[in-house]
Amino acid sequence: MATARSTHTTLAFAAVTTLFFAWGFITALVDPLVAAVKGIFTLTNLQAQASAFAFFFAYFVVSLPAAALVSRLKAVPSILLALCTMAVACLIMLTAANLANYWLVLLGLFVLASGITVLQVAANPLAAALGDPKGSHFRLVLSQTFNSFGTFLAPLLGAHLFLKGVEVKSGAVVDPAVRAEALAGIDTAYLWICGLILALALFFFLSRRVVGDAAPKPATTSGLLDAFSSRWAMFGALGIFLYVGAEVSIGTQMALFLNDNSIWGQSDAAFGVPILGTLMGSDGVHGVSLQEAGKAVAFYWGGAMVGRALGSLLLTRVRADKLLALFTVIAAAMCLYVVAVGGVTAGFVALSIGLFNSIMFPVIFTLTLERSGASEEATSGLLCTAIVGGALLPLLVGKVADLHGYAFALIVPALCYVVLCGFAIAAGRAKPVRAGGGASLH
């Protein structure tokens, strides 16, 4: 009996881990989608970045209601509702692709991210709870590893499906056949995602008793607004806002940036780099096409995946505030190199920023929890709401790119990293009010 229950719990944990992979994959799929809609619908950078805005604005709108929902329904019913919402969103995306309607794309992305927000609120504590309590940290880190793997794979598949033959350079006109193929690629991607989501929903419905028994009691949202009375909670929210905004801005602009003639658009240098060149897959035409550039974006997110593993080791030997200060300085310097120097080398430098983004979210999160005078629940709720930076800052970066070019637009994330360095220094000087806040990975 115990063995059977253990098997069911293991299967339940595997399903929860698949959720982590799914939302990481879906989130990173926004990057090639931004480049695709820019060409398909002939948009400015600002208009194309509305895709990122629609997706990440859902975190701002839905985070607090999601916490209340999970508190009322508990984990498994909330997960089922979230998955059904995501399936509906995929159907909206399929309709958008078939009607070639950008407004429907934006609606689909907002609904999709709304479901993911509920999913994150419910699944994070569930991953830690499914099994022996002594292994809770290991299980959460393992689940987050699959989340990072999803963010690595999404640009590769998205570029393959969305960006073949798509042109976004000034004066370029997208061929109707290419446009139709790109829309068909969007249709295919979200059709398969819809199928995966429905399969997961069926599994969770069938195993609802096993998973439900292991689920922790959800935290209530009472006192959530208390976070606004804490200076450190507010400072940490600013940090999360700037970090997520910088990370998303760079990721969503990366394919367009690399494809630019001043970076890799007229160079084959990237194809000579082992692994990178292989995964980009040269089409035999001189220079890096938008599709090839879109595949290279996987290395931006792959750097974050590798950096998270290395950062976890470094954090056992280096104080978190010091490591955060070092990584933010390096990231700011890399952005400024791109702005000031540009050229082929700037492409490699920009891709490497992901390596130093890796530890920022969890470290900002935990440093804030340790210093906030508000409750952990209230502080966590405010920090999660601050993810809206991923909606707003890409719009600013898109506008700067329209006015001054893709390379100069990295001045915006550079300034974000400078402020984050200030946060790290201030955190190092401030005395924690509680022992180590629970780790939270983005």
From TrEMBL:
<dbReference type="Pfam" id="PF07690">
    <property type="entry name" value="MFS_1"/>
</dbReference>
<feature type="transmembrane region" description="Helical">
    <location>
        <begin position="50"/>
        <end position="71"/>
    </location>
</feature>
<keyword id="KW-0472">Membrane</keyword>
<keyword id="KW-1003">Cell membrane</keyword>
<feature type="transmembrane region" description="Helical">
    <location>
        <begin position="103"/>
        <end position="128"/>
    </location>
</feature>
<dbReference type="InterPro" id="IPR036259">
    <property type="entry name" value="MFS_trans_sf"/>
</dbReference>
<feature type="transmembrane region" description="Helical">
    <location>
        <begin position="140"/>
        <end position="163"/>
    </location>
</feature>
<protein>
    <submittedName>
        <fullName>FHS family L-fucose permease-like MFS transporter</fullName>
    </submittedName>
</protein>
<feature type="transmembrane region" description="Helical">
    <location>
        <begin position="78"/>
        <end position="97"/>
    </location>
</feature>
<keyword id="KW-0812">Transmembrane</keyword>
<dbReference type="InterPro" id="IPR011701">
    <property type="entry name" value="MFS"/>
</dbReference>
<feature type="transmembrane region" description="Helical">
    <location>
        <begin position="346"/>
        <end position="367"/>
    </location>
</feature>
<dbReference type="InterPro" id="IPR050375">
    <property type="entry name" value="MFS_TsgA-like"/>
</dbReference>
<feature type="transmembrane region" description="Helical">
    <location>
        <begin position="189"/>
        <end position="211"/>
    </location>
</feature>
<feature type="transmembrane region" description="Helical">
    <location>
        <begin position="12"/>
        <end position="30"/>
    </location>
</feature>
<feature type="transmembrane region" description="Helical">
    <location>
        <begin position="323"/>
        <end position="340"/>
    </location>
</feature>
<feature type="transmembrane region" description="Helical">
    <location>
        <begin position="379"/>
        <end position="397"/>
    </location>
</feature>
<feature type="transmembrane region" description="Helical">
    <location>
        <begin position="298"/>
        <end position="316"/>
    </location>
</feature>
<feature type="transmembrane region" description="Helical">
    <location>
        <begin position="232"/>
        <end position="258"/>
    </location>
</feature>
<dbReference type="GO" id="GO:0022857">
    <property type="term" value="F:transmembrane transporter activity"/>
</dbReference>
<dbReference type="GO" id="GO:0005886">
    <property type="term" value="C:plasma membrane"/>
</dbReference>
<keyword id="KW-1133">Transmembrane helix</keyword>
<feature type="transmembrane region" description="Helical">
    <location>
        <begin position="403"/>
        <end position="426"/>
    </location>
</feature>
